[in-house]
Design a protein that fits this description.
Number of helices of chain C: 12
CATH superfamily of the largest domain in chain C: Bordetella uptake gene, domain 1
Pfam families (chain A): TctA
Strand content of chain C: 15-25%
Chains: A mainly alpha (502), B mainly alpha (191), C alpha/beta (334)
Protein name (chain A): DUF112 domain-containing protein
Number of domains of chain C: 2
Structural class of chain C: alpha/beta
Strand order of the largest sheet of chain C: 2-1-3-10-4-11
CATH class of the largest domain in chain C: Alpha Beta
Order of helices and strands of chain B: EHHEHHHHH
Largest interface: A-B, 100 and 82 residues
Oligomer: heterotrimer
Largest sheet of chain B: 2 strands, parallel
Low-confidence stretches of chain B: 1-23
Number of strands of chain B: 2
Distance between the termini of chain C: 52 Å
Strand order of the largest sheet of chain B: 1-2
Strand content of chain B: under 5%
Structural class of chain B: mainly alpha
Mean pLDDT of chain B: 80
Mean pLDDT of chain C: 83
CATH topology of the largest domain in chain C: D-Maltodextrin-Binding Protein, domain 2
Organism (chain A): Yoonia vestfoldensis SKA53
Helix content of chain C: 40-55%
InterPro entries (chain A): DUF112_TM (IPR002823)
Keywords (chain A): Membrane, Transmembrane, Transmembrane helix
């Protein structure tokens, strides 16, 4: 009974309800603008809500978090520029839909599915948090390393053109991620003895450059072409449409919750893994992936919103952040006099249930705001290109600067933007570059931790993998996926089945 | 991925508008040069990665950089060899299809933006950039250009500088004093 | 290039004419936080600064600037004007940048506004570790050389200093140092069993200890700790630790040398008031930090002593890139 009351706290105080609504609304726009991030917004809110009570402060933060994760999909669909890293996969099928005039429909499906994913994440948080956090803790460095390799194999999914060029792009991304002083030994890597390179290259700056600037430069080719008229009927997807994608979205939501709950991995990796999963299990999509497949929208959007609930799992049960945003929220709880840690659930269960309630509310507001503002949003794509291109470029510059207040990041952003423009033209996929950067540290650090733990002994390293059920499962998955992508497998499959299944 | 699809639909979703020209059996102008450039750059990075920690230990800071740059070198070499065997697409030129005047002009504008951002400050640089860019693209009157540029700049500045307190380079404008003036005004009005 | 320089000179001249000390602060102050959002330094700075703003009657805009173990943020403030409008909010790390080869600057280029608080280091162990106290741990290491996995956070981090201290006092311990990028991830790994023992700040580990998910081994202090009174202290375990203790990470607010004296005075007064605020004191207590709230000559003396002790400890352990003597850092006398 107390539990129910704690969940409903949000509804009993109109002020809290309003703050969640406000947060969600603001979050959608913060998420949509590349360069404004939820992390930034929440850390500013710490100072802003300093003198408030803890409930109102948390309400606002939870709203922004939920809205922000969803908001990234808007610009990904409308402009092919992901507003936040977790929306990279959404652009791959969302933008082609917008080009066919189906932006409204794409946003509608995205919104409903984000709601669904968010809901799954919250339900898992409410019912199974202790189990999931125990599972997440059991991940050893070698498991994170295997997970990173599994992620890198997604290169195949993300490069619809030449696979060799895709592999090059992925390796390039890993190299970019290694630039700067190595966080484990402080050795300089690819810095060429330049001070400005010591801090490394901001991943967000590369993303904004490769997607924002190179897309804007690309659009210069068709300045005079009229923008595609967007159909704005059929925004709310029919029940049968939702039902079709229900099995898939359940699977991708589970991926989202688990990846979200692992400390050190978040919505961005979850969304990419879910996209890959969708591509694997969907045998006959109505529209091929990469050209506007619904599955390509459903998978990443359910996963990244489910990852929100997932990220709260280690935070609430162990005081360990699931991602950057929950890390700041832990700080906020400290400042407001709480002690987030394993005892929080026992000492102050109300706080846990209050957050569950606030998340649920934010999720509902996300659905409402998401489905109502679409008509105005789609007008953005219909704006003249002569205005939208300069604005995208300016926003890219401000956004890159805002990441770390560094002018160096602006230079990197512009450099990678121009480089990305050439990559586009010569058929090198950009997705794998970003994938490589995201996974670079995870792969590198955990490989070194794992091999150091085994005293540099490869034999002991493999023994460790084979004797741990979790590591073995991940290892087998890596092998299977790798083999299924090689030409030998394809040849064998063709011989066995007689013909290709396309 | 679905291996069966590769090769038949050879285009990237993000370059869907290039797809009609992006023929897999022919190379685009400049493509071979780009591939050679990538190969040379990869070899250079591989050499650089070797310099980080050499072959001292599996756990060395340079192990993963060496592995990844080796993959880059090999794949770049394969791409170069494959590209070299293809014939040029007839009718495409570097100046027309890859780097038209407008793209070069914008790359130039962006470089100038980067150079001026620190000394001149964000507001002035961005204003100049927006006016030049909108004028170049829309070819409409000055009143139209300047009013659109001004309006969008004000919105962006308020959101980033005031709401999100991103300390954009102030340059030669006394921006912080300006904000403090308004802050005092509001504080004065409230009390 | 020369054009850029010209612009910079012009900008400098203009801003210099505007900034006068009498009406300080006449515009918002930038507070550059050396570490990322959500970390210890971030939490401490964001909870003390609002009180300082109230005392100062101005606005401090705090920005996280991460990278190169905080050197990026430090260099940013060094490059800014010494007008009191750019403050560095940092931790102890810059004091060993020079010997670790991480940069040419440290806090000697700064005037301490306030050294807020100091943390206490301790050893914590995974619950399944086959020992429950410090003596047991040493016995286990002696019996199983090269098996104990000890968490680390890179050369110069707190664990490396504590490890160096242990090696200096107990003789070289044959353990595996597994590097993590911060004590947060390392403590997570400790709970998951990826490492066996972790040298950490008391405040970061205390909640997990209270919940019984990790076990305390030793506190590196000379006095019994009020938060964890039952845990053995280092000088009780081995009197030789007294040479190096008390030692611990600290947090401070700094202004670049050359900032006008009255500006320094105003800032010092504001942060001293802020550090006494009961809310802040309560927060620091709950996280296991020891309040210092010192400035001026007292702070300088603390910094010098800290740097001497730590730099030579790391140097003796063979972890430094350059000898402390090269930077005029004297060997501690006692």
């Amino acid at each position: 009974m107390d539990t129910v009351l704690a969940i409903l706290t949000v509804f009993t105080q109109p002020q809290l309800l309003l703050l969640v609504a406000l947060g969600t609304f603001a979050g959608i726009y913060i998420g949509a603008i590349p360069g404004l991030s939820v992390t930034m917004a929440v850390s500013i809110l710490i100072s802003f809500t300093f003198s408030w009570d803890v409930y109102p402060a948390i309400s606002l933060m939870v709203g922004i978090y939920m809205g922000g994760v969803y908001g990234g999909s808007r610009t990904a669909i409308l402009l092919n520029i992901p507003g936040s890293p977790s929306a990279i996969a959404t652009a791959m099928d969302g933008y082609p839909m917008a080009q066919k005039g189906q932006a409204g429909q794409a946003i509608g499906v995205t919104t409903v599915m984000s709601f669904f994913g968010g809901l799954i994440g919250i339900v898992v948080l409410a019912l199974a948090a202790p189990f999931v956090s125990a599972f997440a803790l059991s991940f050893q460095p070698r498991d994170y390393m295997l997970l990173a390799i599994l992620g890198i194999l997604l290169v195949g999914s993300l490069s619809s053109g030449s696979l060799v060029k895709g592999i090059f792009a992925g390796a390039f991304g890993i190299a970019i991620g290694a630039v700067g002083r190595d966080p484990l030994t402080f050795a300089e890597r690819f810095t060429f003895d330049l001070r400005l390179m010591e801090g490394g290259i901001s991943f967000i700056a590369v993303m904004i450059g490769m997607f924002g600037v190179s897309e804007a430069l690309q659009q210069l080719h068709n300045v005079d072409k009229r923008a595609v008229r967007q159909k704005i009927d059929k925004i709310i997807p029919s029940f049968s449409t939702i039902k079709t994608y229900l099995p898939l979205s359940l699977q991708t939501s589970s991926i989202g919750v688990i990846i979200g709950a692992l400390p050190g991995t978040g919505g961005d990796i979850a969304a990419l893994m879910a996209y890959d999963h969708a591509k694997r299990v969907t045998k006959n999509p109505e529209i091929p992936f990469g050209q506007g497949a619904m599955e390509g929208l459903v998978a990443p959007e359910t996963a990244n919103n489910a990852a929100v609930g997932g990220a709260f799992i280690p935070m609430m049960t162990l005081g360990i952040p699931g991602d950057a945003v929950t890390a700041i929220m832990i700080g906020a709880l400290f400042i407001h006099g709480l002690n987030p840690g394993p005892m929080l659930m026992i000492d102050q269960p109300d706080m846990f249930w209050f957050i569950v309630g606030a998340l649920l509310t934010a999720n509902v507001f996300m659905l409402i705001f998401g489905l109502t503002g679409i008509k105005i949003f789609t007008k953005i794509v219909e704006m003249p290109r002569s205005i939208i291109i300069p604005l995208i470029l300016l926003l890219s510059i401000v956004g890159a600067y805002a990441v770390n207040n560094a002018i160096t990041d602006v230079y990197w952003m512009l450099g990678f933007g121009i480089f990305g423009y050439f990559m586009r033209h010569y058929g090198y996929p950009l997705g794998p570059v970003i994938l490589g950067i995201i996974l670079s540290r995870m792969l590198d650090d955990n490989w070194r931790r794992a091999i150091i733990s085994e005293r540099e002994d490869l034999g002991r390293f493999f023994e460790g993998i084979l004797t741990s059920p979790l590591s073995l499962t991940l290892f087998v998955a890596v092998i299977l996926i790798f083999v299924s992508q090689t030409p030998i497998w394809r040849a064998a499959k063709t011989r066995l089945l007689g013909k290709a299944t396309s | 991925m679905q291996p069966d699809v590769t090769g038949t639909t050879d285009h990237n979703s993000s370059t869907a508008h290039v797809q009609q020209t992006n023929h897999p059996l022919q190379r685009r102008p400049g493509e071979l040069g780009f591939a050679i450039f990538l190969t040379l750059a990869s070899v250079f990075l591989l050499y650089n990665a070797y310099g980080i920690s050499g072959f001292r230990a599996l756990s060395g800071a340079g192990s993963v950089p060496m592995a990844t740059t080796l993959v880059m070198t090999i794949t770049a070499l394969i791409v170069t060899l494959r590209t070299a065997r293809l014939g040029r697409i007839a009718g495409e030129t570097l100046a027309k299809d890859i780097l038209p005047v407008m793209v070069i002009a914008f790359i130039g504008l962006l470089i100038v933006f980067g150079l001026l951002l620190k000394p001149l400050g964000f507001v002035l640089t961005a204003a100049l950039f927006l006016i030049c860019a909108i004028k170049l693209l829309s070819r409409k009157g000055w009143v139209y250009t300047i009013s659109i540029a001004f309006l969008s700049l004000v919105i962006i500045w308020v959101v980033f500088r005031v709401v999100f307190t991103v300390l954009l380079p102030a340059g030669i404008l006394p921006e912080a004093e300006f904000i403090q003036f308004f802050r005092n005004l509001f504080a004065g009005g409230a009390s | 290039m020369s054009f850029k320089l010209m612009g910079a000179v012009m900008a400098l001249g203009l801003s210099a004419t505007i900034a006068t000390a009498q009406d300080y602060p006449s515009k918002e102050i930038q507070g550059i936080i050396q570490w990322g959002a959500g970390g210890s330094t971030d939490t401490v700075m964001r909870s003390v600064t609002p009180h300082a703003e109230a005392a100062l009657g101005g606005t401090v805009v705090m920005q996280n600037m991460t990278g190169a173990v905080g050197a990026i943020a430090l260099n940013y403030v060094v490059d800014a004007d010494a007008d009191g409008y750019t403050l560095l909010m940092g931790a102890e790390n810059p004091m060993i940048y020079k010997v670790m080869g991480l940069g040419e600057e440290d806090y000697s280029a700064f005037t301490p506004i306030n050294l807020l608080a100091r943390g206490t280091a301790m050893l914590v162990a995974n619950n399944d570790a086959p020992f429950d106290d410090y003596a047991g741990m040493l016995a286990y290491i002696a019996a199983n050389p090269g098996e104990l996995k000890l968490g680390a956070t890179g050369p110069g981090g707190l664990p490396s200093v504590i490890t160096a201290m242990m090696n200096a006092v107990e003789g070289d311990l044959d353990v595996i140092a597994v590097p993590y990028d911060g004590d947060g991830p390392a403590l997570t790994a400790l709970q998951g069993g990826a490492i066996d023992v972790m040298p950490a700040v008391l405040g970061a580990a205390v909640e997990a200890i209270r919940a019984g998910s990790i076990k305390p081994i030793l506190i590196f202090d000379t006095q019994t700790n009020a938060t964890l009174p039952d845990v053995q202290i280092a000088t009780d375990a081995n009197a030789a630790y007294a040479t190096y203790l008390p030692w611990g990470p600290f947090f401070g607010v700094f202004a670049k040398n050359g900032t006008p004296d009255d500006v320094i005075a105003k800032l010092t007064a504001a942060y001293a008031t802020a550090a006494e605020h009961p809310d802040f004191v309560a927060l620091m207590d709950s996280r296991g930090f020891t309040m210092m709230n010192i400035s001026g000559a007292e702070a300088d003396a603390f910094l010098t002593k800290w740097q001497q002790g730590t730099a030579w400890l790391l140097d003796d352990a063979g972890l430094t890139q350059a000898s402390p003597t090269a930077f005029g850092i004297a060997r501690p006398s006692n």
